[in-house]
Amino acid sequence: MRTCAAGDCFRPATQGELCAGHAKRKYRHQPVAGPLAEVGRTPWQRLVDAALKYADADSDEAFARASAVLRKAAQAYVSSRARR
After folding, report:
1. C-alpha distances in angstroms, 38 versus 7, 9, 41?
2. Mind listing the pLDDT tens digit for each residue in 13-70?
3. Domains of the chain: which residue ranges?
4. 79-to-1, 25, 43, 83 alpha-carbon distances in Å
5. How far apart are CA 61 and CA 78, in angstroms?
6. Whole-angstrom Cα distance, residue 42 to residue 84?
7. Total Cβ atoms within 10 A of residue 77
8. pLDDT per residue as tens digits for the range 55-64
9. What pLDDT shows up at residue 6?
């Protein structure tokens, strides 16, 4: 079975040389390089990952991006808890 030709992606190639996610990016004229979003992660897992990236930010640009991602992850987590 062939794997996706996009960078570090190890998903099976289903659309020519690309996996379904990277093929969709190409179809939408978006950059094919880069990781795809992980699916199936809980809001808590996304919040923890965002907090770790925030703590590891080493430049102003990385800090600003990590701060925005952390804020969105925290809002999603609070929203998921409110639905219970």
Report:
1. 16, 12, 7
2. 987 899 999 999 999 999 888 878 777 789 999 999 999 999 999 999 999 999 999 9
3. 1-36, 43-82
4. 41, 29, 9, 7
5. 26
6. 14
7. 18
8. 999 999 999 9
9. 86
